[in-house]
Amino acid sequence: MSVIYIGDRETGKTSLAMELANPNSQFVKVLSPDYDQLKALLYDDQEGRTRPTESDQSTHDRSLEIEVVVPTRRKTIYTEWIDTPGEIWRASWQQTNSDQWNQFVKVAQGCQGVLLVVPPYREIVRHEEGINLDDFVTQTQWVRRFDRWVEFFKHDCSHIKHIALCLNKADLLQGVNLKREAQTLAYKPQGSRMNWMQRNDYVFKRFFRPVRSHIAQLNQRASGVSVKCFITSIYNRDLLELPWIYLGTFLKEDT
């Protein structure tokens, strides 16, 4: 089974992928490339941070092989990780860069599921020293960006049945205690506090209400479509693994 891992640049996808590959895993493990290979590729030791995606490259794609432990077995998710510039959604860009656009659409159409990473919007980020609010778009801008993803899913990925929406950098959100959130949302093979529908309702009502009509459009576009909302952070393994466990649980294996 295959998944496309996407999101606008500067949303933290690189940091999430590298932390997911950390050997200190629970139910999700990156089989290839391994942690050392991924770190050598993505991390700048001198800067002490992940390397930014090259801005002069129209699209940037990598592959990850991820193993998920579900109650009765292990499943492998083949993941196409693609970074896109914001300009990719403009008709003029698509016409000028038709090869890159067509390749992006082709990869997406070959996948069964989507894991979309979005950043928090300014209004829900904590106001405190060390956090620059100018680094975050406003709620209005955030909703406008989400419009582009909805159109993409509706017109170019209409076959996809499972979409995991991940609001990243949850450690920066107002009123969020990562440990407490993980205790509420975490997956446990025996005795989880919530099922998948309850987790989705909990996260959706707290963080995704500005795009409720957009999510309704996605859920209604075809029978059998499932859109689930998550919060993620590199600082909590339970929250980091949760969307991958969801996809591993419900995506059908290739036949």
Brief overview:
The protein has 255 residues and is an alpha/beta fold. It has helices at 13-20, 35-42, 91-96, 98-109, 139-155, 178-185, 196-208, 212-220, 237-250, and strands spanning 2-6, 28-32, 43-44, 49-50, 60-70, 73-83, 113-118, 162-167, 226-231.
Structure characterization notes:
With 255 residues, this protein is α/β, with parallel strands linked by helices. Helices cover 37% and strands 21% of the residues. It contains 9 helices and 9 strands. It has helices spanning 13-20, 35-42, 91-96, 98-109, 139-155, 178-185, 196-208, 212-220, 237-250; strands spanning 2-6, 28-32, 43-44, 49-50, 60-70, 73-83, 113-118, 162-167, 226-231. The strands form 2 sheets. It has a 7-stranded mixed sheet with strand order 2-5-6-1-7-8-9, sandwiched between helices. Strands 3-4 form a two-stranded antiparallel sheet. Helix 5 links the parallel strand 7 and strand 8. Helix 5 (139-155) runs parallel beside helix 8 (212-220). The protein is globular and about 50 Å long.
Helices, strands, pairings?
Elements: E1 2-6, H1 13-20, E2 28-32, H2 35-42, E3 43-44, E4 49-50, E5 60-70, E6 73-83, H3 91-96, H4 98-109, E7 113-118, H5 139-155, E8 162-167, H6 178-185, H7 196-208, H8 212-220, E9 226-231, H9 237-250
Parallel strand pairs: 1-6, 1-7, 7-8, 8-9
Antiparallel strand pairs: 2-5, 3-4, 5-6
